[in-house]
Amino acid sequence: MTGMYCIGNFTGLVNLKQMNSSEHHQKSRRTMSMITMRDRSKNRKPLQKGRNLSIEAIQTVQALKRASRDASSLEQVYDNKFRRLLKFDMIAVLRELLRQNQCLLALKVFEDVRKEEWYKPKLLLIAEMVTVLGSNGLLQEAELVIAQLKAESCLLNPDLEGFNALLQSLMNLNLTGLAIECFYLMKSVSCDPDRLSFKILIDGLEANKEIDILAVIQQDAHRYYGQYADFLEMDLTLPKCN
């Protein structure tokens, strides 16, 4: 009986050790698994900000460029590809063509965009178009874009940042007359100019020695800001766009 009791105790002890060993092994595996998961997470790439060109938009840009020398082929691309795009992809195609200095294609795309029911003029986009067209020597086309903008004034929102960007684009191209027209367009849609608006105009007018209109704009600045118009001597700049 004593021998059997000892054997029983020994067997139980062995089983207990096996159970402890098994639990320890399982804990070790779980720990290793957790460590492995943490290591993998360190290799993940950060999320990208903004919206990249979709496959459809990229293919449309490429197709438009290939067909640009043949009017019938170009129209087919518009029917089969561009006009089937979503709103955001249409705008993305336009911006990409501007980025690549494909000015004539960009103008044609812009004409199509303006025909869409959802279209409303976006001043930052207009400013971008004016800059690209002007820098490529297409000043008449830039003037046409501004003329279209004025005709669509009923669709405009009082976008101060957009108007300031547009004023800066026009002044950079020495299109002071158009800049003044946009300044009054700005006020006509209940968008009050700020200090930066006046600074852009006054600096440009002084550089171009437009003395008469300069005096008018300076008086307007004092009418808005009175004794606080000393900002005209300050270094004000447009905020950087991401």
From TrEMBL:
<dbReference type="GO" id="GO:0000373">
    <property type="term" value="P:Group II intron splicing"/>
</dbReference>
<dbReference type="InterPro" id="IPR044190">
    <property type="entry name" value="THA8-like"/>
</dbReference>
<dbReference type="InterPro" id="IPR011990">
    <property type="entry name" value="TPR-like_helical_dom_sf"/>
</dbReference>
<protein>
    <recommendedName>
        <fullName>Pentacotripeptide-repeat region of PRORP domain-containing protein</fullName>
    </recommendedName>
</protein>
<dbReference type="GO" id="GO:0009658">
    <property type="term" value="P:chloroplast organization"/>
</dbReference>
<dbReference type="GO" id="GO:0003723">
    <property type="term" value="F:RNA binding"/>
</dbReference>
